[in-house]
């Protein structure tokens, strides 16, 4: 069940580098979850904490998870996933703009006379 908690975190929390991912997962083993994740995904955060509890006996079972609010209200699941898709689309557009700016800077630098 610990792995399910890790996967749940990875599904909803973007990692920009492998080093960041390693840091977050290391902190998770001590019960620390990124603040931004808790703010944006409070229900998911609750279950990540439960699933990754250091005391394995306190972690919910698969049957308990299926009965949880994560899966109980289908509308919430769909709405959460739609929100995640929108967030990723916005991030994708931001990255595209950044890439275009970088390309422009490189083109300008290459076009400038070299002394």
TrEMBL record:
Q: Which residues form a coiled coil?
A: 71-105
Alphabetically sorted, this entry's keywords are: ATP-binding, Coiled coil, Kinase, Nucleotide-binding, Serine/threonine-protein kinase, Transferase
The EC number on file is 2.7.11.1
Q: Does the keyword Transit peptide apply?
A: no
- Locate the transmembrane regions by residue number: none
Q: Which GO terms describe its molecular function?
A: ATP binding; eukaryotic translation initiation factor 2alpha kinase activity
| Presence of the UniProt keyword Kinase in the record | yes
Q: Which GO terms describe its cellular component?
A: cytoplasm; nucleus
User: What protein name applies here?
Assistant: non-specific serine/threonine protein kinase
